[in-house]
Amino acid sequence: ETEVTQELWIKVMGNNPSSFQGTNNPPDSGEVQEKRPVEAVNWFDCIAFCNELSRKAGLEESECVYTVEGHTYTKSDAEANKVPVMDMSKKGFRLPTTDEWEWAAKGGREDSLAGASSYFDLDSYAWYLNSSLHRTHEVKKRRANGYGLYDMIGNVAEWCWYSSEYQEYCGGDYRES
Asked: Which of 176, 172, 51, 13 is nearest to 105 (CA)?
């Protein structure tokens, strides 16, 4: 329903790599630091996160979606930028494909910009460069799209699965998520 928060990343991965934290990058008044999206992570980190989240959710190792060189993809593989293989028949957590992300971002509307019907209404649904004041914001501070998903564009970019040879992010502005 939201981008991965710093709070969830810490619980799963044990660290907070985000640049938008601390006294130099505090949250806006009324916002909670831990509820801001994690950023300053790359595609490989996100692959390892998906497998680790699957394990922490109680799924068997054999249900992890990503493998490399015959074993379940780990943080060490991410640090080495090893390109994984994805098995979509597994039940673990995974990145959406670019097509899945686009479908989800539209929220059931063909003319949609993550819920907004025009650029004039975009402020209600998305943080973007001009409205964000060049920082991330707590998730769920804008309206949800038609599927009940928040921040599908803006705030931070969302990493997607394209193929094992190519990674890309979808829907963000200038920060990695």
From this structure: 172
Note whether 54 and 63 are within 8 A (CB).
yes
Strand partners of residue 170: 158
Q: How far apart are CA 23 and CA 28, in angstroms?
A: 12
pLDDT bucket at 165, cuts 50 / 70 / 90: very low
Please give the structure tokens belonging to residue 120: 């004039």
Amino acid at 57: A
Residues sharing a CB contact under 8 Å with residue 119, sequence separation 6 or more, in sequence order: 113
What span, in angstroms and rounded, lies between the C-alpha atoms of 87 and 155?
29
**Highest-confidence segment of 57-71, 105-119, 163-177:** 57-71
Which pTM value belongs to this model?
0.88
